[in-house]
Amino acid sequence: MNTTLRAAIVGSTGYGGVELIRFLIGHPKVQITSVISSSSSGERLSDGFPHLSEIITDTLDAVDIPLIADKADVVFTATPHGVSAKLVPQLLEAGLKVIDLSGDFRLKDGAVYEKWYKHAPADEALLAQAVYGLSEVFGDQVEGNDFVSNPGCYPTATLLGLIPAVSAGWIDPKSIIIDAKSGVSGAGRGTSLTAHYAEINENFKAYKVNKHQHTPEIEQVLSLVAGEPVTVTFTTHLVPMTRGIMSTMYATLNGTHTEAELVELYRQYYEGRRFVRVREAGVWPATKEVYGSNYCDIGFSVDERTGRVTIISVIDNIVKGAAGQAIQNLNIMMGWDETLGLSLTPVYP
Amino acid sequence: MNTTLRAAIVGSTGYGGVELIRFLIGHPKVQITSVISSSSSGERLSDGFPHLSEIITDTLDAVDIPLIADKADVVFTATPHGVSAKLVPQLLEAGLKVIDLSGDFRLKDGAVYEKWYKHAPADEALLAQAVYGLSEVFGDQVEGNDFVSNPGCYPTATLLGLIPAVSAGWIDPKSIIIDAKSGVSGAGRGTSLTAHYAEINENFKAYKVNKHQHTPEIEQVLSLVAGEPVTVTFTTHLVPMTRGIMSTMYATLNGTHTEAELVELYRQYYEGRRFVRVREAGVWPATKEVYGSNYCDIGFSVDERTGRVTIISVIDNIVKGAAGQAIQNLNIMMGWDETLGLSLTPVYP
Amino acid sequence: MNTTLRAAIVGSTGYGGVELIRFLIGHPKVQITSVISSSSSGERLSDGFPHLSEIITDTLDAVDIPLIADKADVVFTATPHGVSAKLVPQLLEAGLKVIDLSGDFRLKDGAVYEKWYKHAPADEALLAQAVYGLSEVFGDQVEGNDFVSNPGCYPTATLLGLIPAVSAGWIDPKSIIIDAKSGVSGAGRGTSLTAHYAEINENFKAYKVNKHQHTPEIEQVLSLVAGEPVTVTFTTHLVPMTRGIMSTMYATLNGTHTEAELVELYRQYYEGRRFVRVREAGVWPATKEVYGSNYCDIGFSVDERTGRVTIISVIDNIVKGAAGQAIQNLNIMMGWDETLGLSLTPVYP
Amino acid sequence: MNTTLRAAIVGSTGYGGVELIRFLIGHPKVQITSVISSSSSGERLSDGFPHLSEIITDTLDAVDIPLIADKADVVFTATPHGVSAKLVPQLLEAGLKVIDLSGDFRLKDGAVYEKWYKHAPADEALLAQAVYGLSEVFGDQVEGNDFVSNPGCYPTATLLGLIPAVSAGWIDPKSIIIDAKSGVSGAGRGTSLTAHYAEINENFKAYKVNKHQHTPEIEQVLSLVAGEPVTVTFTTHLVPMTRGIMSTMYATLNGTHTEAELVELYRQYYEGRRFVRVREAGVWPATKEVYGSNYCDIGFSVDERTGRVTIISVIDNIVKGAAGQAIQNLNIMMGWDETLGLSLTPVYP
């Protein structure tokens, strides 16, 4: 009996797409059977991405639902916001399992989506159906399901860093301030002045301050965990580097908790989940320590003078913040070990 | 009558020292008469810094008080913490004007210094005598004085970004959270694993979280401005770039204030001070926009949802955060136009 | 008598344009009277370049010949290849002095231009009239002339590194191999995948190998100097940095010459020319040592084993390779000291 | 029957050492049984390299021959020049297989070693015994042998790029000029001003021009292949990036050969060797296309005007230039598929 699952990737010429390919090539139970691009169909994938020369020799397929349904069992949609909302229903209709990497199915409330994304929201029934795939927190809902909405990069780093403390009632949800920093690959492969080398190299800049579309995603989950509406302050910055996100989070402690107690709380919360690594008290992770891997590393600093805790969480935005977690969700969906195909050690230095 | 002031620079082989040289070379009223280094005396400065070839042909002098007194009228001490505390008294004793770039004379309370710097504090009388040279705020105290303690890089960016709002009572001082980021040149020229290229390139890391020695410096000034003791949360990060500091500051607004009102408040506060540029409402500065220059640029984002304001302030850490502000203080001290020698346009890109 | 020369800059929103502005602001005999952009006229220059906030408050003018003739005495055309060929004749016709930073007037032979640039060549008479402004070599032709074609960035670094040796007959012109490397700002401000941050950061790549349009420019000058047709091997690479060009040049020595002799030969050739600095024997310059300045630094390594010399020449591509040399040519054209407005020390680190 | 080979790594706290670990962790036939460091024994490896947290929990062993012999079957010595010469004989004596990553056993002539390395050479008999492990060229000698001297990073990129053409007699060995560029990780983890972030970021510099110790290694192999003594011109540069080497090579063609013919020649030469990828005619590889992987990618440009060919070869200096090729040699040594444990796709972007 052949246990290999056939996977198609829509958006194979984006950074999320090629990263899915990098990991799926080594996945023991998955075979890539179709790499798809609406803009470059008919071309060889490796012509645009020579690092894949002689590794993937496939030609890019067009976005053709019957063809996808014929070739694949599961589809990763690494498509822009607005595109997934239209494409995913057809893929589900065709009986395919879908893991969507866009923001189109993350927010349960279409009105909120429309406000922050400036797009028409997806179908309400599908919004309700989509499971929010923050693997370590909602993995039990992912298992056995056919449709997962993969979390955003910033929310992944931020939520994994906040949920255990919020859940335990150790921090005041109203006090949460999130100062996030991302490498430039998060802006995607589409050229723009923002991602133009000479503009961002040797430069550090803030963007979408208090306006980033990941804000309601973070608030939706924190509200659920806290059992009350949570509103956060959320700032995003661009770092002159390619990969990596750091979320530096500030909150007022409810009562007194030491760093050692926080370490213990988090280690218990993430017990058995290999991709979250909680640093020892007084040690903070750096983005390079998860480079190219699916890890999320977390550290703490409690300041007795102010009664606040600073929580630092890092991920590789393209891996745990996109392609890696998508594959982790596939593994969970299928009832497999969640680490299949993802056991790559961070690249250092 | 020759109006040229003769300047000596102790610590000429550090990044602050060579930056003082870069600006003083073009200063119309100052002449560099002695470049001094305790470790490299006798060598030609340009052998270690070939970018100065044929520009400065001087040999480095040793730290010799009578020689300095003979050669110079004013001394910039770009020396490490602990060294200035011992050196500056001798220079003042010798009748020299002194602008100290170390942290040794910034904190008025020697016990606080000792706690955060882990060094014995400087002489109490001198701590009292030193004027804290945040030029745009304490310039009137600098004028006519002979001894200025130049502010730290993080405090400069942070205080210029907070003081007008704190002073006006528009933000709650108890709510202040400062998330600061610096280029690696801030770590100086001494080699260490922290500043080792392969360790910091493509890496973003936090350090000294809640423990940075600039914390009490920020608190000392904010307390003075607020008229009550202020304790802040202060986090520092290293950005993979050479120059630049961004301070992203969060505070709860007292009442309702729009971004436009904040812009107006700050523009009035800094009226006539060329080196602070307040961006229009909704525009945030990036570090590259002040690269190599003495500017401090500031922008705002008010979030009505949370009642908080995010203030973003950027400087070049080696210029406005060190050498540039030191020269600005010399100008003010001497009663000159504060911009003399400092009118360089930021280098972009 | 007002001795201020009025200058207009066509292409003010490109990197060459804003660099012209950075230097001209400090020029004692020049005033910028019009900043011009075909694509952004009517907008404030500092809206697109916030580093110029409160420094230049001008609105961008359109490309309007009578207006330029009314406002300016000299025009810098920092325009793309193909555009200058059409624009410059009109400016000259209007009685303006012109310094053209494009490649349109560098090659004397229109057919060669067409072959390498894939554009129709400029008017033959104008090609003959244009003086090739390699300041240290052809400055005597620039003086008193009204129309200068400013050299390309690679040719500037390369020719200054080769001409003294070729001129003296110390190297075999047929043996010359040029391995050149440039920072990414050389690709300009137009967005493209080549200059997309995530594609070029942590990447080193060759481009246009044996096909770069600066090849015939180098050959034209070397042939002139050598007194015989010279064909070179020329390779260009992109370095993950913003500014700087290094040209590493290889040639077979005619007879035996030591590094010290080469240093002496070059120092004599460039006697009195401040912007060329010849390093001592066995010391090679790095691009950062000329960062943001108009210097060209040169060093040598003679290998007795092979009978070849390696010559290393560095410039800042936007300064000595574009805007800085253009101003140097203006100075020479006007009979002024060639260093006016250009005496900025390299920014280090 | 247990087929797992037990491996020890001396020099586990260097960049070569941790890269060996990154790959060996995923090797199906090897188990790391001892990580060794002379300077940090007794410490946990992951304390110094937090990216390995929860992946490797081992404490570092001292360099203790009997202990190594007890724990391991094969030893990788990622030790500095001069150290291996003394250590390797003891390891071989103890019956261990050895793959040495230093330069101590690459040169067959001890006098040449002494001249270029300024160290006393290793024992003559061992120099004769060591197999030079350029896998694709000398793999047949590696197979079944117990002692391999792993090639240097620059020689690997350079020799793989030159050998097929030299071997076929298509280029003139006397004309070879090699312009090589390396990321900064090649300088190792020991701190120095050369690898200090602020000194090398935004900087491009040459070093050891005509004096690099890899010169005789390249010449030794080319002489062997050419059947005559070959002397090359070899220049090395530092690129502001962490990983990657590009070797740009110039040579005069013997007769006429097109790029397509060169592609064909090289593809035949490397037939069946997965880690060399020859690009199509007119396409040149970039270092990022092999980032984090064991590939060596090669491209060509023939210039009919000069009769020269430009050959461009790229590797990841820490992988194919060190740890990866070392494991490839182990695989060949053991008679295994040479790709075992090395099938990682390059990390892009």
Task: Write up what this structure looks like.
4 copies of one chain form a homotetramer. Chain A has about 350 residues and is of the alpha/beta class. In chain A, about 30% of the residues lie in helices and about 20% in strands. Chain A contains 12 helices and 13 strands. The first copy, chain A, has helices at about 15-25, 45-50, 65-70, 85-95, 110-115, 125-130, 135-140, 155-170, 195-200, 215-225, 260-270, 320-335; strands at about 5-10, 30-35, 75, 95-100, 130, 145-150, 175-180, 205, 235-240, 245-250, 275-280, 295-305, 310-315. A 7-stranded mixed sheet of chain A has the order 8-9-7-10-13-12-11. In chain A, strands 2-1-3-4-6-5 form a 6-stranded parallel sheet, sandwiched between helices. In chain A, helix 1 links the parallel strand 1 and strand 2. In chain A, helix 1 packs across helix 12 (about 320-335) and helix 7 (about 135-140) packs parallel to helix 12 (about 320-335). The termini of chain A are far apart. The mean pLDDT of chain A is about 95. Chains in contact: A-B, A-C, A-D, B-C, B-D, C-D.
